[in-house]
Amino acid sequence: MTRPEASHPVEGTRLAAPSFTTTVPTEIAVRRDGAERMGFFTDTTVCIGCKACEVACKQWNDLPADGSQFRKGGSYDHTGELNASTWRHVRFVELLEPASLPRLPAHGELDLVGAAAGMAEVDVAAAVARMDDWIFMSDVCKHCTNAGCLDACPTGALIRTELETVIVQPDVCNGCGYCVPACPFGVIDRDPVDGRAAKCTLCYDRLQDGLEPACAKSCPTDSIQFGPYDELVEVAAGRVAELRRRGVEGAYLYGAGDDPGHELAGGLGAFFLLTEPPERYGLPAAADSPIQENVVPATIAAVGAGLAAAAAATAAFLHAARRARRGGR
Amino acid sequence: MSDGRDTTPALGTHGRPASWRRAREGAPVAGARSRWGDAIWSFIYGREDTSYRAAPLPAGELAAVNRAGRSAPPPEQLAGPFVKPPVWTWEVPLYFWFGGIASGASFVALACDVAGDRRSARIARGVALGTVAPAPLLLMADLGRPGRFLNMLRIFKPRSPMNLGAWSLVAFSALDAAAVGADLLGVRRAGRGLGAATAVVGGYLGSYTGVLLATTAIPLWARSRLLLGPIFVSTATATGAAATRLALVAAGLERGHPTDRALGTLADGAMVTELALSTLNERRLRHAAAAMRGGRAGALFALARGAVGAGLLLRRARGPLGPRADDAASVLFLAGGLAFRYAWLEAGVASAHDDEAAARMGRGRLTAEDEHGAGPRGARLRSRERPPLRGAPGPRRAWSEAVRRASLAVERLTTSRAA
Chain A contact for B42, CB < 8 A? Predict the structure, then answer.
């Protein structure tokens, strides 16, 4: 098998392109001439759930294994969620079996008849129709334009790189844990052993040497595609058009190509092609950096209340003093 | 999860980034091509003879398709988790409590000075210093890397309530220590001035904790953004007044003294405000407030409300305790305030696990309906380039780097001692 000539997919075939403009770069801590925004496009319609990306990520980034337990009741997904030691997570988007089905013991004798006694009849046709309702989505840090973790970080450990990705500097992070609830996608986490926050770096180290990120490299179906952001959005827009032509009416992009003001967290550096409502993938229908959304009104209300409290204290004392003088105590 | 896991890094040492040296400087990296050309090896997508993709949708049409996709009817089964619960442990609510008492005591000191009760003002400043003293220790203990606490002061970042909170804690402690020092040295005027400055910083120290929680993605906290700060300030004022009252009584303040009465009124008023605001908040949140009812959070809220209610009752009807009832009420207010701090953290953890609330918050933003959560509107901190510290880049970088190095040195020192 010969490898096709490494040609840039877009360079050779640049179509009459729609204009996709990325938002203004924010807080770039690392500068380099000629650097542009890089990102991931994850196409869930071709993901086969092999978890090669998870393994490649763990190998390259030297992350410990999480054990192999089936965590969520009835799910075949044994990773569960993104955390400090899982930076890529293939989410199994399943319809879990209803709790009314019989629970069979893992060991010992199976009493199928006994277990089925009293159960409603299984609607086989419906069950078969639902069998292809099993989709996979390789979830990852979104490298948001308005990144909640970056806004929250009190030490400046979280920075934006010249490639407009968001990374944690491990020698600065002191493990305060504020970024963990500040992420609107529940991505970043604090490692219980190591004590520091950790998440996907979009393989910043590999990119310095001209290598694509480990997960994208390992993906056997190219569900994970890596490249310059604008070109990825173009590829993704073409994929949406193709899927809709084929009758997949639900296909849409999560995190890219939105109208200004309706972006998810200002636009996601790692965006997804989805075919179902976002909540089926554990994603919010809309999100923004909670700091940018709330800090101004919350601070005004809080500091106003602080001033009011100081004023109330003074008023209480002046009132008591006046009463004491008037009534001779 | 932590048991038996080997976390020895393959490169470098713990606490420092991995480092390595190339065998040959400037040697090419195997597989690398210019502009990440190695990403483009695909058999399917880079070629013209596959039907992977068609001509892209025009930008306007794509935006409409995305909007329709994201606002499709939500599924019956939610596939959480949507957000991560906070990793903060018992130290943090205790810190909120101590910090709140300190800031409340600084208000009381200011008010005593204004009303002319100099002795009580000095004692109140002492209470503020005594209660703010354990705060940094608690914060350090909660860090994943306690040795690196100094890094909080590496930059000045007004956007991050935690960074501003760390600075305000430093400023409050320094100002209040100076005020207490001035009082002890008999420089009355300086003591009063520094005390007033402490109260100004205390206005932020007592309230930022509410802002800190409100600026997260936890549905309960984020959706309480306008009331969480005022609720926390109320608790701070009430507990600060109660603690100062107890200290003053212990220091021999006669009962029925105007300061005693004013402190009682202040604590009552602040606690009533806190109860009213949290009830209002709970009603306003509807579904998102479910996390405040069940489980440990619900029990803690009930405990807090019970303690505060009992304190208020004691203040009204003194009963067999007589004048001692006021002291008992102060103790109950302190206990209630502590329970409120723990309750808010527990409720946040419960809310993070409430997939329904998280999903609704997103939907509410999408449709801009206030029913499920306010969309971003009004004043916002837009993303733009910001320097981490004001001033010239040279000193800025020098300060950041000096603090980082000092922090790492402290960490090495403390960890080698521990080992």
Answer: yes
